């Protein structure tokens, strides 16, 4: 059988077309990889922008955060606060006395006292704001008056609260 120039040309054309097809396939594969990398980069860029924004907001609030930390640290004491130092309760006419000391807290009892409810709540909130590491553990409110009286009446109040000690301020408990 004799190879004609046309058959040679067709064979050569077929081989060139196959090589071009393989090259095109490789280029398309690399293009897909590059597009995927670009999408990944864009996602990471957006995430970085979000993190930068959060960091910027934290930096703007740095003084407020520092003030909060200082307030918490100011409530940490190495000696038991004297019962008379709880001014908001004394100002409302509620007696406070030291109860006991545990390894983590100083415990106090307040009351019994009789006062109107609208005077009690500001005293309790003011005390808690003044001592960041103070927590109320028991609060007992009893009204001896009939419900829905036309005038404000006193309620009987008593309770307990604790102040965290310095040695336990950084610990967390389950």
Blueprint (SSEs and pairs):
Elements (H helix, E strand, L loop, with lengths): L4 H56 L1 H13 L12 H5 L4 E6 L3 E12 H14 L3 E10 L10 E11 L10
Antiparallel strand pairs: 1-2, 2-4, 3-4
Number of helical segments? 4
Beta-strand content: 15-25%
Q: Element order, helices and strands?
A: HHHEEHEE
- Quickly name the level 1 CATH class of the largest domain: Alpha Beta
Helix content: 40-55%
**Form type:** rod-shaped
CATH topology value of the largest domain: Alpha-Beta Plaits
What's the architecture of the largest domain, going by CATH?
2-Layer Sandwich
Head-to-tail CA distance between termini: 92 Å
> Which class do the helix and strand fractions yield?
alpha+beta
For this structure, the quaternary state is: single chain
Q: Give me the side-by-side strand order of the main sheet.
A: 1-2-4-3
Whole-number count of domains: 2
E-strand count = 4
pLDDT average, as an integer?
Answer: 84
Which residues form runs of ≥5 with pLDDT under 50?
Answer: 167-174
Whole-angstrom Rg: 38 Å
The main sheet comes to: 4 strands, antiparallel
